[in-house]
Write a structure and sequence with these properties.
homodimer, alpha/beta, 6 strands, 17% strand
Chain lengths: 178, 178
């Protein structure tokens, strides 16, 4: 195995309908920051109030997330604006990745752009293949990761919901659920 | 639904053979610390050098993990000592949980004690039911979570390995893999 293969950055995908896709990404970020690595976090389609706790803790560690969403929710009626903001986020992500200023770039909830057809999966992968610095680790989260993305990734984990307190009608608790 | 049910602490389990069980727990810890919640992390059966990055970042945030392992690995020959240390860790965990000094207690890699038969699952659950402060969130990670633990938990996520870079023979990278 060539050394260039051993040393190249990983492409990691966290998908599935269970909890822990983004949360696990925050754990990876924590690990990288603890090792003094340079991390960029780009958050797609997140409600502004979401992930308040994680973001505050990351800010304490010196990381300011890049937000691109518009408070998107599943009941959002203005998909055009949401789509426009998401694609703006993709352009921002491309700048960040191509800059080669980071050891890890996290595209949180990025799969929605692909799943909704706002961004062509083959086009996105071709862009990564052409422009991702070889040593950069790329971590993508979100439901319904397309097969082409799974084929492209080195490591894919599916978070499967076995049982969830919401199903039992228990109210969400700040800190644990959001 | 009674208010006491709504406000009670959650029991969360991260299990499965995929990546992200502990990493996701670190994300939950990050979220709780960001919300100024009191967190205890008890690490069972971990190699001393493992999770170095996460631990360093958590220390920056003011959390000192409690370690109980002895550098256990799958090739360990001295199971008696490992078992003894693990059970010492369980006694420590019981103190921490019963103290009511925390909002979240994480028992990282705790399922191994149950899976290996070092601690009886029904006995552990009976202890939680009798001694866990009602508002305390308890998060347990590890492979092969027993069915009784899954029945007891509010939220269970199984991390499923879809694809892993190790399978392709790529060398582990500090920060991403450990």
């Amino acid at each position: 195995m060539a050394d260039s293969i051993k040393r190249r950055g990983r492409v990691l995908v966290h998908t599935g309908d269970g909890r822990g896709k983004s949360t696990s990404a925050f754990g990876v970020i924590l690990r990288m920051l603890g090792r003094k690595k340079r991390v960029a976090l780009i958050q797609f389609l997140k409600h502004e109030g979401g992930q308040w706790g994680e973001v505050r803790a990351l800010q304490q560690l010196g990381l300011e997330p890049i937000k691109t969403g518009d408070g998107f929710t599943w009941t959002s009626k203005d998909l055009d604006e949401t789509q426009a903001r998401a694609l703006h986020g993709w352009a921002r992500a491309q700048q960040v990745i191509a800059s080669d200023d980071y050891d890890l770039v996290v595209l949180d909830e990025f799969t929605y752009l692909l799943d909704f057809g706002w961004l062509d999966t083959a086009e996105a992968i071709a862009w990564f293949q052409a422009h991702k610095p070889p040593r950069l680790h790329l971590l993508i989260t979100g439901r319904n990761a397309p097969k082409e993305l799974i084929d492209y990734a080195d490591t894919v984990t599916e978070m499967v919901k076995v049982k969830h307190a919401f199903d039992a009608g228990i109210k969400a608790r700040a800190g644990i659920e959001f």
